[in-house]
């Protein structure tokens, strides 16, 4: 999961991107870079969702239903994480994309 850490120095607030990941039995935070604007944070947050969309569309085009279903479950999980950090307009857009994938999977069955 990607998150923003805010640090105050000398009266200014600096924003840094971090990613949480599990290493063995511990969860660590990995520094990803400095945040310049909200657009950059949104782009980074949506990167995983968009990668899964591309992956699942490939499986659907090749009629690999079981692989597509597995990736669809990952997509739903990613949608739930992302939806907490984006505005309602973008959330609706992602919901519609997710629903479109669901309908295509039903058509394959």
Q: Would you give an account of this structure?
A:
By secondary structure, the protein is α+β, with helices and mostly antiparallel strands. The protein has two domains: 1-36, no CATH class; 37-109, Methane Monooxygenase Hydroxylase, Chain G, domain 1. Helix content is 59%, strand content 27%. It is built from three helices and three strands. Helix 1 packs antiparallel against helix 2 (65-83), helix 1 (38-61) packs parallel to helix 3 and helix 2 packs antiparallel against helix 3. It is elongated, with a radius of gyration of 17 Å. The mean pLDDT is 86.
Essential attributes:
3-stranded antiparallel beta sheet; alpha+beta; 109 residues; 3 strands; elongated; Methane Monooxygenase Hydroxylase, Chain G, domain 1; 3 helices
């Amino acid at each position: 999961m990607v998150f923003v850490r805010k640090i105050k120095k000398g009266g200014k607030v600096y924003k840094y991107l971090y990613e949480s990941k599990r290493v063995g039995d511990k969860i660590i935070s990995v520094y990803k870079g400095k945040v310049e604007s909200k657009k950059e944070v949104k782009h980074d947050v949506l990167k995983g969702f968009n990668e899964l969309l591309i992956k699942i569309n490939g499986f659907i085009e090749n009629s690999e239903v079981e692989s597509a279903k597995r990736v669809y479950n990952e997509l739903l999980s990613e949608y739930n994480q992302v939806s907490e950090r984006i505005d309602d307009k973008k959330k609706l857009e992602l919901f519609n994309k997710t629903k479109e994938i669901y309908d295509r999977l039903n058509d394959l069955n």
